[in-house]
Design a protein that fits this description.
Elements: H1 2-8, H2 25-38, H3 40-44, H4 72-80, E1 88-92, E2 127-131, H5 141-147, E3 152-157, H6 159-172, E4 179-180, E5 191-194, E6 199-205, E7 210-216, E8 219-230, H7 232-235, E9 243-246, E10 256-260, E11 263-268, H8 280-296, E12 304-308, H9 341-364, E13 367-371, H10 374-378, H11 413-426
Parallel strand pairs: 3-6, 3-9, 8-10, 9-12, 12-13
Antiparallel strand pairs: 1-2, 4-5, 5-6, 7-8, 10-11
Helix pairs in contact: 8-9
The chain binds 2-acetamido-2-deoxy-beta-D-glucopyranose (5 copies).
């Protein structure tokens, strides 16, 4: 109950995503032109994606539109593996899912256990991601556990980060059940040990990634974010982990005060007229900058840091607290929608910081990789719990429709397909 409320009571002010999804080619072209003019970063990003392919390629040159300033590292990866695994479509997969609410009841968090709460349809579990130019293999638990033998993996972020960890636990449970070896009683942060494979996986609850305090006892949901200070709850422990998956997002919609150098520098939706409204994109970028700085200040880290990019929500016909819901029952085709508005801004803010951290990491021998899920998840309005995250008789004035998290089994199982594929390339 408590956890659910904490997870969900973010003050999302996002306006409705345009429900008209038929985009005329001319509009798209104009849009792309504008985007590329103002956001060269977007143009840049596909070339740095870690990508995979079964095809070996010897003489592939970057496409003509490739900007000349693509860094050598990115180019090398691109030439070696000529496939962007993040560009593709969702295609039907009758064989899915690979676990059920019955085989993995112990790991699935109740509010994402959509079948338990009576979701009538099951098609949302029966899709897989098909990259345009190669295959993305379905998660192979034995292969994963062999790859990570003797290693450890940490998820840092909010409840969507935990959502992915639970998917991973479920996918791996075909081969081995882990032991809960958590040192803290905090239900929000758990550590699991796969003793047969000497693999540890943990999640660190840190929805803002940086140091936070509650701003005012009178307004308990108004947080103070110390945008340049580490959140010790994870930064003090992260050196124990080989691989780290960082993500954040939906909490940044809430009202907050922003501090830098211990001074109040601005805020988001606060009522104090004397304080500058800096907006969520500002704090979002800064929070990632600080989180990446914590990683880059580690000594002797041999693992990989993944940025799992923002996963859009899909409220339609109202905001999250104004009757918005997600009732679609199948994925979009990639030509039926496009990243825009808040989703696009958040995505670009985090990828911008990722780029900086990646080149800093390169100097220090640290690997940063994009787990570039934003566009992919934009296409999955059908994958959220909506009303099936709790019993129907639960008080509807306090239980909103959940179009933020993802049903398990469900589309975010694919994030672990990507994770395995990327680890497979690197290790
Ligand atoms: C999207 O592409 C499919 C083919 O993959 C095509 O049948 C459909 O008409 C396209 N839709 C739009 C809105 O362009
Ligand atoms: C799993 O879902 C089914 C409905 O598909 C439900 O009857 C069953 O109680 C659920 N089991 C658990 C353990 O949640
Ligand atoms: C498990 O992995 C850790 C870290 O690599 C290593 O120090 C330890 O010796 C391993 N334990 C066993 C039993 O293999
Ligand atoms: C705003 O700033 C002015 C000048 O610094 C000050 O006189 C005033 O009391 C401040 N108001 C609030 C609400 O803090
Ligand atoms: C539902 O919750 C609201 C707000 O907490 C409360 O005022 C109302 O009495 C509750 N209704 C029921 C049926 O429990």
């Amino acid at each position: 109950m408590k956890v659910h409320f904490i997870d969900f009571s973010y003050g999302k002010q996002k306006t409705l995503q345009n429900t008209s999804i038929v985009v005329l080619a001319g509009v798209v072209l104009t849009f792309l032109t504008i985007v590329f003019l103002y956001y060269p970063l977007l143009l840049d990003y596909p070339f740095s994606l870690i990508s995979s392919s079964s095809q070996s390629s010897s003489s592939i040159l970057p496409p003509p539109s490739s900007p000349s300033n693509v860094r050598e590292e990115s180019r090398r990866v691109d030439v070696k593996k000529n496939c962007n695994i993040f560009a593709g479509e969702w295609i039907p997969n009758p064989e899915a899912p690979y676990y059920t609410n019955d085989t993995c009841e112990w790991a699935i968090y109740d509010h994402q256990n959509c079948m338990k709460y009576g979701r009538p349809d099951s098609d949302f579990m029966k899709w897989r991601w098909k990259p345009n130019d190669c295959e993305l293999p379905i998660f192979d638990p034995s292969k994963f556990l062999d790859l990570v033998k003797g290693k450890s993996l940490a998820f840092v972020g909010d409840s969507v980060a935990r959502n992915q960890m639970q998917s991973l636990l479920c996918l791996l449970s075909k081969v081995e059940y882990p032991v809960d070896v958590s040192k803290s009683p905090d239900e929000q942060s758990r550590t699991w040990q796969y003793t047969n494979h000497n693999f540890t996986v943990a999640n660190f609850w840190s929805p803002y990634l940086v140091k936070v305090s509650e701003a005012d006892p009178m307004f308990p949901s108004l947080f103070s974010l110390y945008l340049d200070e580490f959140d010790d709850s994870w930064t003090s422990k992260i050196h124990e982990f080989d691989h780290v998956i960082i993500s954040a997002g939906h909490w940044f919609f809430r009202p907050a005060k922003y501090f830098e150098d211990n001074q109040l520098v601005g805020c988001h939706y606060c009522t104090d007229k004397n304080v500058t409204e800096l907006g969520m994109y500002y704090s979002y970028g800064k929070a990632f900058r600080t989180a990446f700085r914590a990683i880059n200040s580690l000594k002797n880290s041999k693992g990989i840091t993944f940025l799992r990019t923002f996963a859009p929500s899909h409220f339609e016909n109202g905001e999250w607290n104004k009757g918005g819901d997600c009732v679609r029952r199948k994925p979009f085709k990639s030509n039926e929608t496009r990243l825009s508005g808040t989703d696009l801004e958040l995505y670009m803010a985090q990828v911008r910081e990722f780029k900086v951290a990646e080149s800093e990491g390169l100097k220090r021998g640290l690997k940063f990789r994009l787990l570039d899920t934003t566009n992919i998840m934009l296409l999955r309005p059908d994958g959220h719990p909506s009303q099936y995250g709790h019993l129907p008789e639960a008080n509807t004035t306090t239980w909103h429709r959940d179009c933020v998290h993802w049903c398990l089994p469900g589309p975010i199982d694919t994030w672990n397909d990507f994770l395995l594929e990327m680890l497979n390339i690197e290790l």
